[in-house]
Amino acid sequence: MELNRKVEKLKYSLIRVLKEEASKYSDVINLTIGEPDIPTPKELVMEAMKYGEENQLNYAQAGGNEKIRKLVADYYNNKYGSSYDIDNIIMNVGGSEALSSSLKTILNPDDEVMITAPFYPGYPAMIETNYGKTVVMDISKTDFKITKELLEEYVSDKTKAILFSNPCNPSGNVMSIEEMKIVVDFISEREIFLISDEIYSSLAFYDYYSFSSFEKIKDKLIIINGFSKSHSMTGWRIGYTICPSKYRKNFLNTSFYTLSCPMTLSLKGAEIALEKFSNLNVVEIYKERAEYMSKILESLGFKVLKPKGAFYIFAEYSKISDLNSLDFAMDILKKVRVAVVPGISFGVEKYIRVALTVDMEKLKISAERLKKYCDELK
């Protein structure tokens, strides 16, 4: 029997391909998956487990109860000067569900969503399984910056939304306030949604600005965030959508008919995270790793896009090898047991992404192995 044609066209993630290939080697250093190695705060875990022991874990309220929604609204308002309340917040089963449900809510067949390359591999898949069309903006020609001319080049009368990852996965780039103002002015003049994926916002190394601080696009802004990166809570699967209040019932219905409600224990963990660990500061750890690995890769002949946030290095290798990025990543894995992700996974060639989600000792070993690999190519 015929299946959903959009689903049949999906390709398995190359990130997973490299991760699974890496698992075949006992001595591999895996720098593929963007999963924090820093543990969830122990007090948070213990308090949540105690709640689970003392309470029956029934179905949660769809979209989250008022307490957690107020905590999220207050967090954004205090940190970024926004003006949200509980009617803007929906709790989701992770940031991925938040984004997928948001796209499902706003897209009609053949609507276009503009994204930048390099992009998170899940974006095109989510857009296209929801019957939208992905329009990729090439930002390599603008030094990885957003310009008015770039936006005007790719927008059309079918554009429904522009989607940004900020800080960016895979590049670690962070949009400047000047770039953001260009986007805000562009959006304010058009009937277009802006989707800001801010899952790495707490891991910005320098100044960070959220689109939530721009009041004039509040009715067109959709923010995706969660606790996976900020609090190392990947397995808890808890995220949230901040959306215009007039559309909340639509966003809520989409999420409800997809997954019913978030997990009660995860919602409790999110409450504890915001009440007691809202200022959990791990950013300096990732910044130190990024600075170290950037210098190593540059010394080996890679051209590194300076990371400004998240926990990735995005490095161009054309002076080192003529191989395409998938073959290059596989060759590194087989010869020196370091697993990285090929750039083609993110829509660009001649790049690799290095995840900084291992400790400095392992990063130093991986640096030695990469040096050996590059030396053998000379």
Description:
With 378 residues, this protein is of the alpha/beta class. The chain has 13 helices and 13 strands. The strands form 3 sheets. Strands 2-8-7-6-5-3-4 form a 7-stranded mixed β-sheet, with helices on both faces. The longest helix has 18 residues. The protein is globular.
Search tags:
378 residues, alpha/beta, four-stranded antiparallel β-sheet, 13 helices, 40% helix, 15% strand
How are the SSEs placed, and which strands pair?
Blueprint lengths: L4 H4 L5 H9 L6 E2 L11 H13 L11 H15 L8 E4 L1 H13 L5 E6 L4 H8 L3 E6 L9 H7 L4 E7 L11 H12 L4 E5 L23 E6 L12 E4 L5 H12 L4 H13 L6 H17 L3 E3 L6 E5 L8 H12 L1 E2 L1 E2 L8 E5 L4 H18 L1
Parallel strand pairs: 1-11, 3-4, 3-5, 5-6, 6-7
Antiparallel strand pairs: 2-8, 7-8, 9-10, 10-13, 12-13
Helix pairs in contact: 2-12, 3-10, 4-10, 5-9, 11-13
Summed up:
The chain has helices at residues 5-8, 14-22, 42-54, 66-80, 94-106, 122-129, 148-154, 177-188, 248-259, 264-276, 283-299, 325-336, 360-377; strands at 29-30, 89-92, 112-117, 133-138, 159-165, 193-197, 221-226, 239-242, 303-305, 312-316, 338-339, 341-342, 351-355.
How many β-strand runs? Answer: 13
Number of helices: 13
Helical residue percent?
40-55%
Order of strands across the biggest sheet? 2-8-7-6-5-3-4
Distance between the termini: 53 Å
Instruction: Specify the structural class.
Output: alpha/beta
C-alpha-based Rg, rounded = 21 Å
Sheet of most strands: 7 strands, mixed
What average pLDDT do the residues reach?
95
Strand fraction: 15-25%
The succession of helices and strands, N to C, reads HHEHHEHEHEHEHEEEHHHEEHEEEH
Low-pLDDT ranges: none
Can you tell me the overall shape? Answer: globular
